[in-house]
Amino acid sequence: MHRYHLPFVFALLFCANAAFSQKDKSAERAVKANINRFFEGMEKGDTAMLRSTCTDGIILQSYGADKSGKLQLETEDFDDFVKFIGLATQNKFKE
Fold first, then answer.
1. Cα dihedral 18, 22, 28, 31 sign
2. Which listed residue, 4, 53, 54, 94, has the most CB atoms within 10 A of its CB?
3. 14-48 pLDDT, tens digit each
C-alpha cells in the first residue's frame, strides 16, 4: 500500500515547486515594473514618481576610475540627484 503513496508525493512536490516558481516570477515582474517606473520618472523629470520607487535611506553609489585611473567608490546624495532630475531642461533624460 505504501507504493501507491509515492506517485502522490511526487505530484505534490511538483505542484509545490510550480507554485513557488510562480511566486518568484510574480516578484520578478514587480521588481522590473518598479525599475521601469524609476527610469520613467527620470525621463519625465517627475520627482514624485522617482521617489515613490525608492525606500527611505537610499544610497546611490558608483564605482569607477578617477582622472588618474585609480578605482574609487563614490556616494551621491539622493536628494541632490532628485533635484537634478527635477530641473527643467530641453533635453529629457533617456536611459
1. negative
2. 53
3. 555 555 566 678 888 999 999 999 989 988 889 99
The amino acid at residue 8 is F
Q: How far is the C-alpha of 49 from the C-alpha of 46, rounded, in Å?
A: 5
What's residue 19's pLDDT?
59
Cell of 25: 516570477
Residue type, 86: G
- Please, are residues 28 and 68 in contact by the beta-carbon 8 Å criterion? no
Residue type, position 32, single letter: K
Structural contact between residues 82 and 50, judged by C-beta atoms closer than 8 angstroms: yes
| This model's pTM is above 0.85 | no
> How far apart (Å, rounded) are the C-alpha atoms in residues 31 and 51?
15
Nearest to 61 by CA among 82, 45, 84, 78: 78
